[in-house]
Amino acid sequence: DAVETCDSIDNDCDGDIDEDGGDSDGDTYYMDADSDTYGDEATTIEACSLPSGYVENYYDCDDTDATEPVAVDDSGSPSAAGTSAAPLDTIQAGIDLADSCVVVTEGRYNEYDIDFGGKTIDVWGVDGRDSTTIDPGLTVCDYTNPTDCHPVFLLNSSTGAAPTIHGFWVTGGTGYLTETTTTETCADSDPSHASADTCTVTQDDFCGGGAYVSGDDPQFSDMVFEAGDLPEFAQEPTGSWSQAWVSSAGGGVCALNSAATFDNVVFSSNFADSGGGLYVGASSTVEVVHGWFDD
Q: What is the side-by-side order of every strand in the sheet holding 54-55?
């Protein structure tokens, strides 16, 4: 009845030395039933060395399907199969291929408008937010080039999709554009524009630098939304009787008609006219725990 330990001795005198399953000081390994090199967190064994049929990670969301998770690495290929041996090179490509989950390894990903398309899947930066950065490298736009602004994540299927997104450092988003054209009272001091005069107004509203959420319920954890920089408020004449109006909200995240959750999420050094870190629309109820806002 002695406890078997990893000491090259048959502690329990059953004829097996350091056998799998009974080692008090062994390592934990995870079953890989579908042989995709990703393990099942729910099925483990304690052993002194790696047993056959097990792996050291617990990244598999479906250990009966060798095509899940889809693997992404910044040194991968756009035409790859999305396996651990042949990873894709963008998070968007991984989401497009996946039905259940995406595993993203450490690196720097220069992407924006990462669109979940209404999928309720898990996207995981498995090496953690300090090692896995998404930086689109965008320049802040204004009324002259509004389509140059973009969010990093786009979750606007309006279907109530609830993907989980965790383990990323998101920086440099500039906002999702909604553009409308209306006729308004001219908003300038030109004497020729009396209060009865009207101008054609192009209204550019930008929302959500790190993530634009509308009608979906994502769950973010172990994340940083940093340096989302949205356009500053402006009313600019663009002609004798035309103007451009600009406003922005949610430098880090914009949540509209959403029940988004944020667990261990940092909002840092973001800018917008309303809601520098997080803008919550009137029809949203979000939950923020174990995180903080600064600057």
A: 40-47, 27-31, 54-55
Express each pLDDT in 226-281 by its tens digit: 999 999 999 998 888 899 999 999 999 999 999 999 999 999 999 999 999 999 99
CA distance 166 to 181: 38
155: its two tokens? 């979750």
Determine contact, residues 268/213, Cβ cutoff 8 Å. no
Task: Report yes or no on whether pTM surpasses 0.85.
Answer: yes
Residues 155-196 have pLDDT tens digits of 999 999 999 999 999 999 999 999 999 998 876 655 555 566
